[in-house]
Amino acid sequence: MILVFVETGPGGATEVSLETVTFARGLGGPVHAVVVGELPDGVAEQLGAYGVAALHVATGEAVAAYGGAAWAAAVEQVRTAAGADVVTAAGTPRGMEVLAHLATRLGVAMAANAVGVESDPGAAGSLLVTRQVVGGAVLEQMRLDDRPAVFTVAGHAVEAQPAVAVEAATVHEHVPEVADADLVARVVSSEPGEPDRSGALTSARVVVGAGRGAGSAAGFDGVMELAELLGGALGVSRVVTSLGWRPHHEQVGQTGSRISPEVYIPCGISGAIQHWAGCASSKTILAINTDEDAPMVTKATYAVIGDMHEVVPAISAEIRRRRGG
Amino acid sequence: MTNVLVCVKRVPDVGGEVLLTADGQGVDARFVGFTTSAHESCAVELAVRVADGDEVAVLTLGRAEAVEQLRSALGVGCTAAVLVEADPAGFGPADVAREIASVVSAHAAAGRSHDLVLLGNDAADSGDFQVGIRLAYELGRPVVNGAKTVEVTDGVVIARVDGPDGGVETYRVPLPAVVTVLEGGVEPRYPTITGRMKAKKTKVEVLAAQRAPDGTGRVRLLLPPAQPSTVEVLGTGPDAAPAVVDLLQSLGVAR
Questions:
Q1: Which residues of chain B does A110 touch, with a Cβ-Cβ cutoff of 8 Å?
Q2: Which element (helix H / strand E) includes B246?
């Protein structure tokens, strides 16, 4: 049986958690889910629709605030009670952290960012995990001999798909016992993010990107205007934040946000693999670049060859003209 | 004053196309060179700030060439360096954590206690996301994961982490502790001339690995299948604007 650590937000289970449930279903066998902390309304029905047979909810004072060790202790107690021999989570910061704690406590390996899992034809009982390394530019085949098997699933490795045969998930409450040592490192206070921080970037339908081609800190007016006209967000490459032109929370890439908008419009971005790691899941990519051989152009769906400082204002002007303004 | 140990990894400096070695066991870095993982460059910066004049040791597990990454860290303010000399390809995250823990214990026994150990959240090449957490369990210390900023006041580490909803979460953890660092909270400084001179003169403590590694489970590396370019060029220069807006309208993102 597979146990999925599911993260929730205001809209219920997060999209990447639903992807992970979909991924787990593909491995065969029953899928259970565990939510630690407060359970938003409707999550049991939502997870049932994605094929989760049982939802375990771990609550209580010990896990009310987030802490990697305490939450891993909760997941471990649920795992034992439910009898799961595979535990997985989305490859988010919390998914990685909770499962790394869990794997360490169990004395087993953890495979991070899996995109495929199968039985190892060469070793009975072992799993062969294909996972992303080097920021997604390289795949590693890794043998996972240990049971329970612990791995995280890379974001957008699969699309979240509801199950065909649907039953509401049964709900089981747990109040885990957590040792004092596991309560030392946990969140003691949190401040809400500014509305324009990375949350807006990862949920935007349109992202206008800008890289070295912006030229200077003053070179972003055009892309910001276009982003605003399209009701989208601005995303930048690592060089832009390294040079201090724009803040880090706008960074798209391996060490920034991973985006999957309807349309991504990278302007003056060559497309280094670290950037590609963050934007590869965009549905349509329209690259604007002076170099027709830049990786971002060759990998894009559409391209305009030209200087972003000329092309982008022309697009904005055309949008305004059609709106009659 | 806080004695800090910061752990770094020498990784291939890949930017464009990635090549694999003939045996499929590693990234061929002959044409790209090596660097320090981005998260760890920020960890070094935070370590130097936190130590505030006290010892900041930098450690790596790698071949003799990895001294280059130790010297870079020494050049920006680290005061001591440790090389656990081994072929890093054979060392999985649990192995690396054990080796770091044995250096920390040996130093403590010799009167150098590293109150705070900083590492990158994950290595840019192997992407394991777990060495810091495994190290914390080896040492019996609390761990904060993915910190953007780290301060120490009165023996308490204050670490700030980006929360899942775009907010900022604060941890307060008593020393001794382990913290893993995410890029983006601080700007790594550049080495000064005097820093470079000092880095050259600092003696690197070279140790052998304490035990044979259990390994990584790696079967082999693969490159994702190359996608032939299917790009449709809409035009050149500002004249392409009407075609672009036609496209954006057909995709339903412009009106």
A1: 93, 128-130
A2: helix B241-250
Residue B213 falls within a domain, yes or no? Answer: no
pLDDT in tens, B166-215: 789 999 999 999 999 999 889 899 999 999 999 999 999 999 999 999 99
Cis upstream peptide for B176 (omega within 30°): yes
How many Å apart are CA A142 and CA B72, to the nearest integer?
32
Give the chain A residue whose CA is nearest to the CA of B235.
A304
According to CATH, the superfamily of the domain at A198-322 is: TPP-binding domain (3.40.50.1220)
Please say whether the beta carbons of A223 and A230 come within 8 A: no
C-alpha distances out from residue B73 to B126, B166, B205, Å: 21, 31, 14
- Residue A197 pLDDT > 60: no
Chain B's closest residue to A142, CA to CA, is: B218
CB B253 to CB A263 under 8 A?
Answer: yes
Kindly report the average pLDDT of chain B as a whole number.
94
Q: Do B223 and A138 touch (CB under 8 A)?
A: yes
Q: What is the pTM of this model?
A: 0.88
CATH for B55? 3.40.50.620
The half-sphere exposure of A159 on its side-chain side, counting CA atoms within 13 A, is 5
Per-residue tokens: A103: 């794997």
Residues in A closer than 8 angstroms to B163, CB to CB, are 187, 190, 193
Residue with tokens 């889910």, as numbered in its chain: A33
* Chain A hits for B120, Cβ within 8 Å: none
Average pLDDT, integer, range A197-205: 76
Specify the number of domains making up chain B: 1
B214 inside domain: no
The shortest C-alpha distance from B85 to chain A (Å) reads 23
Question: CA–CA separation, A128 vs B27, rounded Å?
Answer: 20
Task: Let me know the angle formed at the C-alpha of B115 by B111 and B121, rounded to the nearest 5 degrees.
Answer: 135
For chain A, domain boundaries: 2-183, 198-322
Q: Are B43 and B68 in contact (CB under 8 A)?
A: no
Print the domain residue range for B198: 4-208
| pLDDT tens, residue by residue, B30-53 | 888 999 988 999 999 999 999 988
Can you name the CATH fold of A2-183? Answer: Rossmann fold (3.40.50)
Contacts of A304 in chain B (CB under 8 A): 233-237, 240, 244
